[in-house]
Design brief:
Blueprint (H helix, E strand, L loop, with lengths): L10 H12 L7 E8 L11 H20 L6 E2 L1 H17 L12 H7 L6 E8 L4 H9 L2 H7 L6 E8 L15 E9 L1
Parallel strand pairs: 2-4
Antiparallel strand pairs: 1-3, 3-5, 4-5
Helix pairs in contact: 2-5, 3-4
Amino acid sequence: MSRSMPKPSWLKPLAVVLAGMFGYDPAAPALANATDVILEASSASAASPSAMVTAKEVLGILNAARAKAGCGPLKINSKLMSAAKTHATNMAQKDFFGHANKDGSKFSNRVKRQGYKYRMVAENIAAGQATARQVANDWLGSAGHRRNILNCKLKDTGVAVAYQASDKPMMGNSKPFYYYWVQVFASP
């Protein structure tokens, strides 16, 4: 059986991540992912209608990829939506990009603070993508993010974006990101 060499779809997202880390292409969107598997023990704050539309748009693209991989669909969870919104807002307002808040707390702590008891939790973040489609495609094009998305053990999710109109460039970047995205995944 002859196989053609797969296109290096990971190359562009990897270049974006490396560029963001090392400042080679300051205008490029940024991506980061993390997974924290913790055995603990499940799962509600209301999201605005526009936040739900954005989350559902991202989720539609990601759930299509999950279906192709044989995974069940992720379901929106209001507690995870709150955790994602809190972090997206913090990154936008406090001028940072990372999984840990400026106080050092991790995404797993944010999920716990919302009252979601999980056995497994993961997070994807991104900055600079102006649309739900763009961020979903960037996450799917990055091996680490895709791994979180296609982890069939993760069942619930929350997706949020924060827009900062007065955003300023972060150190090492020539342009501001404006948009800060967070997707939290978990299993009760």
